[in-house]
């Protein structure tokens, strides 16, 4: 994937300035504590973006290894992590090809629907095998994904947003098309940066993200050697998943049953 590169990565936090990262991180921490019966000391984060969840989790006492496949996003994340003096290690890594660490993690997390970027079943299976290899026995995998029922019924084909920096105005045009058969949303982002000196810059990215049903995800869990524990309606304790639920946060436990796609016991 070549998403979130260059100027897009630099503007990423502006695009999501109203996202409640601290609240989401607290929910993640609380659910991991609830399901494990103890606080997670070591967490591996996949697709960490600019590191905002990781920084908030570090404030809660966690040691974080935060990974992403975008070097541009990691550059922003590392700068912010250094400023916050957070206990975080940032690494460039493709989540579909995770290396095995010497010391397993208490938990692995993957937020902001990032698992959907993997697309094909085989890529998701490879990622889950890597997650399982890097978890301690009984360790937890917590992740967020787009809910298929809501996406199909309620997606917006076109969205326009205007934002301001100290030196420019940003206009972001998002155009979404759905591939229902493959359960994928293809989103083209056109960004216009209008500068105070009268000039402007334009750049564009097209991203594809898969959406899932709860049953489909549980099928992945069973094949990959995980026990599904809960599927939450977003970052809330509600288990009531409806066609108004855009995002689902799932929690799985590494089971004693071996993965059908890997060779590790």
From TrEMBL:
Gene3D superfamilies: CAC2371-like domains (2.20.130.10), Vaccinia Virus protein VP39 (3.40.50.150). Residues 43-139 form the Methyltransferase domain. Transmembrane segments: none annotated. One of its GO terms (biological process) is methylation. It is an enzyme of class 2 (transferase). Pfam families: Methyltransf_25 (PF13649). Its EC number is 2.1.1.-. One of its GO terms (molecular function) is methyltransferase activity. Keywords: Methyltransferase, Transferase. The keyword Nucleus does not apply. SUPFAM superfamilies: S-adenosyl-L-methionine-dependent methyltransferases. InterPro entries: Methyltransf_25 (IPR041698), SAM-dependent_MTases_sf (IPR029063). This is Class I SAM-dependent methyltransferase. It comes from Methylocystis borbori.
